[in-house]
Amino acid sequence: MTPRERLASARLYLCTDARRGRGDLADLVRAAIAGGVDVVQLRDKSLSTLEELRLGEVVRDVCRTEGALFAVNDRADVARALAADVFHAGQDDLPPHVSRALLGPDVVIGRSSPGGRQARDADSDPDVDYFCVGPVWETPTKAGRAAVGLEAVADVRRQAPTTPWFAIGGIDLDRLGRVVDAGASRVVVVRAITEADDPQAAARRLRDRLPG
Ligand SMILES: Cc1ncc(COP(=O)(O)OP(=O)(O)O)c(N)n1
Ligand SMILES: Cc1nc(C(=O)O)sc1CCOP(=O)(O)O
Ligand SMILES: [Mg+2]
């Protein structure tokens, strides 16, 4: 299966965050994948370029061995250097056509959106392979960004996108049912897995409550 085909069937996407001394990142990623995570994004705004490259090699190799897609955030040069499966860019990052020109036809390209027009634009953009809608709830992981609420998720669902899309922001096991009821069948999480005592069990519980 190609990375694009694998992304289409992905349900649970983990963004790693700064670990703040909470153990080994490779162990966390291994556990998360064993629990059912399909995509792992290295997202740590505190890293230097060289640190991101080195840590990215570690996370990529775990993803390859354990069978998850490996994603790089923001930096197309780092994505290319690491032969990442997925590159994720937000509204203030590289536009999709520029990412595509830099990374070639096979890399899966993701785009953030708050829903609404940006979600429609992402859905109709031939260079976007998936998009995200969020933050559904305010979250300390992305402080200062206003919540778009479950209404934005329901609105995107009504748009009936043909592009795979994920809900993101403040999602945990308690809230997952409401996100699914609003129409999402794929979610991205950070703390729900990175801050869990047992990341494998946390991922498993989330995965088991997602459709498909
Ligand atoms: C899978 C996924 N979805 C959304 C984001 C957020 O991207 P962005 O808005 O560019 O914010 P930063 O993560 O760069 O702070 C993401 N990284 N991954
Ligand atoms: C990285 C990121 N992007 C968002 C967006 O809305 O685009 S919300 C977010 C952080 C999600 O972290 P948590 O699962 O810990 O709330
Ligand atoms: Mg970004």
UniProtKB/TrEMBL annotation:
Binds 1 Mg(2+) ion per subunit. Belongs to the thiamine-phosphate synthase family. 2-[(2R,5Z)-2-carboxy-4-methylthiazol-5(2H)-ylidene]ethyl phosphate binds at T139, P140, T141, G170. HAMAP family: TMP_synthase. 4-amino-2-methyl-5-(diphosphooxymethyl)pyrimidine binds at Q41, L42, R43, D44, K45, N73, S112, K142. The gene is thiE. InterPro entries: Aldolase_TIM, ThiamineP_synth_sf, ThiamineP_synth_TenI, TMP_synthase. It catalyses: 2-(2-carboxy-4-methylthiazol-5-yl)ethyl phosphate + 4-amino-2-methyl-5-(diphosphooxymethyl)pyrimidine + 2 H(+) = thiamine phosphate + CO2 + diphosphate; 4-methyl-5-(2-phosphooxyethyl)-thiazole + 4-amino-2-methyl-5-(diphosphooxymethyl)pyrimidine + H(+) = thiamine phosphate + diphosphate; 2-[(2R,5Z)-2-carboxy-4-methylthiazol-5(2H)-ylidene]ethyl phosphate + 4-amino-2-methyl-5-(diphosphooxymethyl)pyrimidine + 2 H(+) = thiamine phosphate + CO2 + diphosphate. Keywords: Magnesium, Metal-binding, Thiamine biosynthesis, Transferase. CDD domains: TMP_TenI (cd00564). Signal peptide: none annotated. Pathway: Cofactor biosynthesis; thiamine diphosphate biosynthesis; thiamine phosphate from 4-amino-2-methyl-5-diphosphomethylpyrimidine and 4-methyl-5-(2-phosphoethyl)-thiazole: step 1/1. The keyword Transmembrane does not apply. Condenses 4-methyl-5-(beta-hydroxyethyl)thiazole monophosphate (THZ-P) and 2-methyl-4-amino-5-hydroxymethyl pyrimidine pyrophosphate (HMP-PP) to form thiamine monophosphate (TMP). This is Thiamine-phosphate synthase. It is an enzyme of class 2 (transferase). Residues 12-193 form the Thiamine phosphate synthase/TenI domain.
